[in-house]
Amino acid sequence: MCIFCAAVPVAATTGVALNSKQLQAKREAQAAGVENPEVKPIMQITTGVILLLLIGSATYHTLTYLP
Hints:
With 67 residues, this protein is mainly alpha-helical. It has helices spanning 3-31, 42-64.
């Protein structure tokens, strides 16, 4: 398995874990009375990273003719 193909599930898992932690922290902040807790665009960044990895994988497999 190439490095791009192996990195896709790792990036997805990391992004989902970070988003889950952020949502938990947001719920806790709202329960403590903070009106607008800081929210980062984790899922959009994760989606971008996965798309770049898929493009890299397609390019690598096209140029090297590997399955």
